[in-house]
Each structure stands twice: as structure tokens, then as C-alpha cells.
């Protein structure tokens, strides 16, 4: 018992590291995706009133009064910008409405309802107040809804986003599509290589294995930029095509800064993750099985399809899951060579993290991605069984 | 039909690296219905020969003929030869039934006929109850039977077996030897069997070819092989043998006069020795040596060790400077009671002693 505890003790540094560097940040970000108290923190008077409001009846004078009080306070505390940003996410144009009203809030006089509508007619619209009600809630499904192109409104309803603002589902779908294509390409390209590796004499195997692993040891940035040099309009490949007269100088292929670029570069980068588990499994399949199949009358194709392939399924499963899951989270390669239609969901997450600073939405999208990957993993387990997967 | 060759190796050579020969000039013809065993130590070329016959390895030089047709360039799946592999090679992702159905399915047989044949084949090896098991759920002996049934289910005329009993324990191995022999007798198929176990070869075969360094040393029936070895290697490899080294002094009427270890003179059948003055190996079976002076060639001996084995007593003696001279004394009612250290005489008849080539 003590021995076992001591052995367990050795894993504590790793577990602590995982906990601090992985589990906690993930949980914090998931929390951010559903919890946002920007409004509630700085607008202490209007928050309870908005929460009490049913979201459909006419806003009352008390609500206007509370809001005016908060605006005056927020301007004094210089927090109005943060609040305005929050509101703007629920209400296009909300920022200017908020900041300009706040500038003049101190001079407004009762009855505030008329005064504010006088100042900005938008205050008379129900949608404005519904947006405020959404912003005021500390726990909100609004970001999760937004990350799958749904809109959560102040009246509690969830509708589809306006046509021109639906971009997330398209991106999720494209992410799956690109990942699936990359996985298929990796499998088609990697299977014969792994087979060759497992059937060559030891000395040649080592050489080939180094060739497979060499890109693995090169920086992902270097490899991606190398693809730019090869694929771009004035790149190596197009120059060759022109030189051999395959295409005219004015009709060069565009193979990078689009989906093609993403597919080519990602397939290249992820290929070792397919080859290695396949190789590990193929190495353990005795030659005698295929020989036996031949002796029993099976030609090459039948022997491969019915005898060899089924025995490499654990390796195929491992490679496919590995490549697919890595691909869904791929970021730097599509960012560099993806152009417009080669962008994936992680690029949008990055955009919200660094540009729009909409962390809650980024968190919600990350959460959806996580759920998606877990679902596919579960599906794989149901279909083929995780315990049959072999990584080597 | 028995006198024409069914399988024929004609000056066959095999080299894997282009330099050394794994099989050097193999000539062998196997009549229909024979149980032919290729016997030899590992690396002697017997498995290479079998793999060439099965079509898994290319023939470097020469020709292999099956029923008169060259099979050098016939792909293995068109040969129709049953093969039992060393580790059975049962397909692990299929049940026993599916394994057996596989060769019939690739021959496009009807479903009901396949079922019938599979059942028949499993009954033949007493495995009828195990059809729905996976190979991993079977014991070694059961896997062996299933592999045997799979190699026979499509009714090949020729079955190759590559050390099929190597992975089994001794008792099971002996049982399976009789089982395979029974199947051979019952079905009349031609069997080419590879093993390094000489007792297995003697038990099962109608003919044995002893391999050494890629070529055949001797090719004859089990009895001849044991009684009349033609080379010192065969004499040593098959059964137990006493060896004495000497020099040929005179050859007369097929009988050689040999000076043994410069310590004595003996007479032996001149089987495989060169002329006068050349070195030779004398080979005498331990059960053909008498204690006492009953035989024609007599020598002094000292008893070194006695081992009681029930039906016989194994006696290690010092004879002509060798202290590993073995004599088997049958446990007869009147056998002599020896003691360790006792001085006595051993003798043997000239016809039981064979003068063979000198071993290096």
C-alpha cells in the first residue's frame, strides 16, 4: 500500500502541472463562455430592475430612472466604455447610443423616459431594452447560442441569427470538412508508406523512418512557409508548369491562400501522425497471414482486403482519430496559407481572442468545438471501440 | 501412378543475397501419396525448399515441377497447395468456421456446399464443437487441428507442413503425430513435411530427406535411414550413435580394416570411406554393442556411469580413449550387473559397424 502510494506520488508533479496548465484554464474559459458580469458589476441600479422586468411589457419610468443613475455613475467612474462594448454585442449601434447618452445623462431631468427618448429615439424601442436585459444577466446562454448562429433575445426566445450574420455553423462545418479530407488524404498517402516501412529490411526501414520523421522535427512555421514558396503564384510549382508549357504565364494556378493550400499543407504536416500508428500495427502482423491467404487460393486483392486490412484496423482507427482531432484544432497553418475559404474555426476563435476581444464568445466557440470532438470520439468508441485502438 | 514423380525438384538453387546458397543443387522427386519429410538442423535449407514449392519464394535456379508442370512462375494462389504454417496462421479476426470457409469462398462455392464441407473438415479433426470460436479462444492443440482442417478443406492433392508441431508440448505433439499420419493414410494426399525433430520424422514419414548446408545427405525410408546411414552426419543426426575416429588400412570385399585412434584395430563395412590411408568415422549404434566378447571386434572398456532407465540400462564407458561411448543393455532376466569403475570388454559385429566419411 505504501509502495503504491509512493509510486503514485511520482505522478503528482505531472498531475499538478496538468491541473494548473490545462484543466484550470479550460474550466475558466468554459466559465467565461456562460458567465459575464460586466454590466451587472458597473450598473448596479438598473441591473435588478432589468432582471425583474418580463422583457415584453412597456419599459417603466423606474427603469429609465435607474439607467440614468447608472449612466451618470459610470461616466464618473470611466467604466461606461466597457459597459457600452458589452451592450454593443447584443445591440448593433449600442456603443454610440450608450456613450452619447452617458455624456449627457447628468443634465437629464425627470421624467427620464421622455427625456431619454427625446435625446435618442432608440430608447423608445422595445428591442433596445431587451438587449439591455440580456446584457445585464450574469449567466447567459447568449454566447453559446451565438457560437452556433442562434440569437438569444431579451424576451427569452432563441431564434436563428440573421442570414448575413450566420458564419459560425459554416465555419464549424468547413472545419469538419477540411479535417475529414485531410484525414482521408493522410490515410491514402500514409497506408502504402507504412506498409513499405513494415516490410523493408531493417536498415532501409530506419532510413525511411527518418525521412518520415524529418519534417516532424522541423518547425511547423518553416514547413508552412515552405509550402507558400512552392505553391504561390510565382512559386516553384507554377514556374515549372509554365516552363513545361502546361499552363500559360497569365493563367497560373492559385494553390495557396485558399482551401487547396490548407489541405496540402495540413496533410503534409499531419502525415506522420497517420504513418506511425499504422507502422506500429503493421509491424506486428505476421507475413504468414497473407501467405496463408494466398495458399488458400486468394489473389492479391482478396488477401489484402479480407485478411491484411482487417488486421491493420486498430492502426487505422488510431491514425484517423489522431489526425482528425489534431486537424479540427489546427490554427497556424490555415492562418498562414488558408486565405479566405481555408480558414477554420480556430482562426475565428483567435480573431475573437486577439482582435474583437470578445473572450466569452471565443470561449463558447471553444466549448462547442470541444463538445464536437468529444462527440466524434464517443461515436468512434461506439463503432469500433477505443480499447482496440493501438498507438504503438 | 506411384512411380512417376508428382513433385519434382530439378537442380534447384536458392540464394537470398546473391552470394551464399541457402539451397544448393536440390534434386528430389516425390511420388503421389507419399509422406515425405525434409529433416535437418535449422539453416539447412529445408524450409526454403518448402517455401519455394509453395510459391512464396522465387527459385533462383533450376525448376520445380508439380504433376509435370513447372511451377516456377505460377503465383501461389493458383497452385492449390494446402499449407500448414509453423504458428498456424489462423486469421485472428475470423471464427474457425470463417477460417475454413475462406478457401471455399474464394473458389466461389455455394453457401450450402461450403457449410457442408466445413462441417465435414471439422469433424475429421474432431473439432466439430469449436466452429464458432475465434482462434484466440482455442488451445494450441485445437488451433493446430483447425489449421490442419483449413489446409485440407479445399481438398488439395498436396499439403505442405512447416514444423507444424513445434509449438506444442511433448505429449500433445506425439498425439498429433499419429493424428496427422492417420489423416494422411485416410485421405491419400501427398504430404511434404518439414521438421528438425528426427523422432517425429521417423514416426510419421514414408520417406525422409536429410538436409545439411542446403543439400540432401540421404534420401530413404525411415528404417534404412536409421539402420544404414550413408554419411557420418546422418548417423549422428538420426538416433544415437557411437563414433570412433580412425584411418583406413585396407579395404577388402567391402570390409575395411581400420586403425582406431592408433590404439586398436577394427573391421567395419566400407560404406563411405575413401582409399587406404584416409581418415574415417566408425559408427556403431549403442544397442548393437555387447558387453563381453560375443562380437567380432573386441576392446577393453571401463564403466564410467550407469543410468537405470527401466526397460534398458544406459552405460557410459571409456573405450579407446573416448569416455562417451554408450552401450544400451536391455533389461533382460540374465543381464550382467556392472558397477562404475569396473573393467570389462565391449564387442560388436563387423556388419553393425559402418565406416563413413570423416567429420571435420
Radius of gyration of chain B, CA atoms, in whole angstroms: 24 Å
**Main sheet strand line-up of chain B:** 6-7-8-3-9-10
Return the string of H and E elements of chain B. Answer: EEEHEEEHHHEHEHEEHHEEEEEEEEEE
Number of helices of chain A: 20
Domain module count of chain A: 2
Count every helix of chain B, treating DSSP H or I runs of 4 or more residues as helices: 8
Question: Residue share in helices of chain A?
Answer: over 70%
Q: What separation lies between the terminal Cα atoms of chain A?
A: 31 Å
Which oligomeric form is depicted? heterodimer
Shape of chain B: elongated
The CATH topology of the largest domain in chain B corresponds to Rossmann fold
By CATH's scheme, which homologous superfamily of the largest domain in chain B applies? P-loop containing nucleotide triphosphate hydrolases
Strand order of the largest sheet of chain A: 1-2
Biggest β-sheet description of chain A: 2 strands, antiparallel
The CATH topology name of the largest domain in chain A reads MetI-like fold
Biggest sheet of chain B, in brief? 6 strands, mixed
Rg calculated over all Cα atoms of chain A: 29 Å
- What fraction strand of chain B? 35-45%
Percent helix range of chain B: 10-25%
Reading off the top of the CATH hierarchy, the class of the largest domain in chain B is best stated as Alpha Beta
Tell me which CATH architecture of the largest domain in chain A applies here.
Answer: Orthogonal Bundle
